[in-house]
Structure prediction request, 464 residues.
Amino acid sequence: MRAYRLAYSYKGSKRKLSQNRLLDLMGMVDKEYAEMDGHSSVARWESGATRPNERRIEVFGQALNLSPAEVSGLKALAGFEDDDASPNGSGESVGAAANVPHSTSDLPHRVPNTPRVHSFMGSVIGKLVSMLLLPGLFIAGVGYLLSMFGMNIAWILTVYVLTAIGVVAGVVFLNTKLSGGDTHLRELYFGSIFVLLSAPMLHAPLTRMDIYGFYALEGIESTLTPHLLALLVNLLLAVGAGFMFDLLFRWQYSSGFAERRAYTRAAWVALPPLAFVYVFVFMFCSTSTCMYATAVFPILAGMFTVSIVLRDNDISVSLWDRNFMLWTTAAGIIALSVLGGAATLMLYWEPIMLGIPDHNLFHSWEVDFVKLGYVPEELGDRVRLGTVWTSLFSLAFIVLVIGGNLIATIHRMGGGGSASLAAQTAPVANGSSSRNQKRSAEVSSKNVFYLPGWIRKPTPPAIA
Prediction:
């Protein structure tokens, strides 16, 4: 299905037919398809997450004005038997019987309908439960119990912070699996922001301070509660950024922005949520945390922007380009690792850039070292050591998780999932008319190197 979509000329344009426009055309044949979410629905069809039925293949053939032989070939690939004839036995194609025009250039352009309100709200509520409520209850519940029993020693606090990060990572993994991979980037974006915001909390077992200054509140200075509150704020910020990412993605990849360049759309999706989080950090966190965000967020923005561009349907690369991008990306990640390690060593030996977390943009406060449990002379060494742990953890996450995801995206651009489908679809139409042979040649000659939408493991061609 994807091979035919990319080979189709929409209104005489050389641009590829997008997933939203395909659903537009199918909606003109059957109104049921006009109510679907274009990008995610078509992505599931083309990647094999949703098994097609005969009606969908017939509507697809009518929308793209395929020949009876081509529709039969798609049905055969999907595992259906076709009688090579229309219901009236005349051998006329369904598209012709329905008087579908030979070209869709005379069909009116229509912006695809948005999902139904109740369906959208149900999706929002479901994601709020999985992304906010469940990890939030864990963070608050476990933190409250530990604080109530006075268990705030260093190793317990370290385990608490790492476990909170692990719970959010588990939520990202489960949501990705349950949604069939359609929200992979949004889930990774949400999880990455939470992890990178919570990484500075790894100095909390040493300094007993959180990044927002909750530790200065009267009555909770020497308890685990400040760290609980800081983790909940990080979770709220990450969930908000994840939903902003999702809404911006839907907005930028609707038909109204189809003429924008791929990198422009990607930048509009990846950058605004990070800018929102950075402004919040700049206003309410200490100077050292702002410096940390200034170093980490541009890397995060760049990697996600590239990941979105590589998933854009307007991007088509050769095998040589893919290999070049793989080596370039790997070299860049290695260079980033070296620079990050060097910066960590510099901060450890020359901690002049590390500020004491006793103020933010709006106010400052006095540090009560008696309640924190150590003398002021120890603060410098504790901050320095905590910064090393934060830097190493953040660097490892960026390199292994985000960088690994980027390399996997580039690698799968040459996985051959759709290319193999095109190669197997073409022979089905051989032996029919010359127009069918020409269309098959066009389909098989397309540079189809990557699956649309979110990354997905290539599936057998019998599932379109």
Observations:
- Confidence is low (pLDDT under 50) at residues 82-118, 415-464.
- DSSP finds 18 helices and no strands in the chain.
